[in-house]
Amino acid sequence: MASNRSLFLILLFLLSAISVAGEDLSLGPAEQEAVYLALESIDPFTDWRSLYPGDLCLYGPHGVVCDVGESSSELHVIEINLGFVSDVSSNPNCSQNATLPYSLSALPFLRKIFFYNCFSSSKTIFESSFVKNLSSAMREIVFINNPALVGRISGSIGNFSNLRRLIITNSAVSGSVPIEIGDLQNLSQLVLSGNRLRGPIPASIGSLNQLMILDLSGNRISGGVPTQIGRLSELVKLDLSGNRISGPVPVEIGRLKNVEFLDLSFNKLTGGVPTAIGRMVSLKEVYLSGNALGGQIPEIWETLKGILGIGMSKTGLVGNIPASMGVFLENLCYLGLDGNFLEGELPEQFKRLEATASEINVENNRLRGRIPFSAGFVWRLGGKLKVGGNGNLCLGEELVGHVRSTSSVGELELCNKTEIPRAVLFSSGASFLKGRLFWVVLVIQLWFCLFVRGG
């Protein structure tokens, strides 16, 4: 009890000391004025000075964040968050006449700027002078959902050696990804999705050895996937989808041992499904749909047992579906193989996917034979089990009456009773040849016994 009382008195003393010290803390007049001007830039119709007449660090709006400076008697603005996100994060709202607040250059300790849905109607130019004059202490530059934000990402972005996050999404920013992006050695997140960026991905991006998230999706980026991406050893998410990237996927991508999410879908990639994916042992999701990859589905699944989602729709795939996918993908939730030229049977081993699968789509291929799934699984998935557009797939008698009206399984005809599904682990012409060789040898032995030895 005595020790608890002593601890309580110590905590009470510390809180009292902080409270007393806090009475002397204040924001300097230059920074106070810079914040007022920033608020007036994003909403000139609100009288911010009357609404917040006191110290903006102590009595300001939610989006203004301050910290104690080197002197115990001063406060400095370290974050400006603008644009109402939610009641939990009620930052100052932006009006339709919002403009970029150039007064932020007068905040020497500023570490983060955040703009959410601030520039949605009036065209606002993301000028190099705005970026260039920000504090060199910047760690986060974030613009989310600003469709009227135009301009280019300046090469001066490379001056921010402490930058951790550069996020500009869903805007009209154009130009190319600057080569100077490689100078941001401490960057952990580079997200430039949903813009109008063109040109190639600079090879300098391979210098970002702290990068964990790279998302350039939804732009007009062209050229190939640079081999230097294989140097990003800390990368967890790589999303280049929805661009105009062409050529084969480089084998260096297999070096990305920590990547869990890989999306290269809806580009112009060729050269087949990259077997290097089989070395990306941390993969949870891989999406390659909407490319011109061609070729067969490779046997790479034994090392990808933790994978949850695979999307390879409309990629020009040919040949059989490997039975190994059913054997090794024991955690698979989603499989998309629709819109290809796949043939043969759905492997019996696919029945093993029933434990985890929530959607399987093999529509519009050239598959044949009996679907291998149980009545309970077909009923549970309903419309999420998509097998239509395969003229020679058929339905076993045990499934009749268990098919939902929303499922394309109900469109299948009843299988011929004499049809027996094959149950081999891996499809190969070797088993067929081995069977024929057995009969040839047997006939030779009978001929030898009857005619040679008998004579």
UniProtKB/TrEMBL annotation:
Gene3D superfamilies registered for this protein in UniProt: Ribonuclease Inhibitor (3.80.10.10)
Instruction: Keyword check for Flavoprotein, yes or no.
Output: no
Q: Which domain of life is it from?
A: Eukaryota
Signal sequence residues: 1-22
Transmembrane spans = 437-454
**Keywords assigned by UniProt, alphabetized:** Glycoprotein, Leucine-rich repeat, Membrane, Repeat, Signal, Transmembrane, Transmembrane helix
Question: What InterPro entries does the record point to?
Answer: At_inactive_RLKs (IPR050994), Leu-rich_rpt (IPR001611), LRR_dom_sf (IPR032675)
Q: What is this protein called?
A: Leucine-rich repeat-containing N-terminal plant-type domain-containing protein
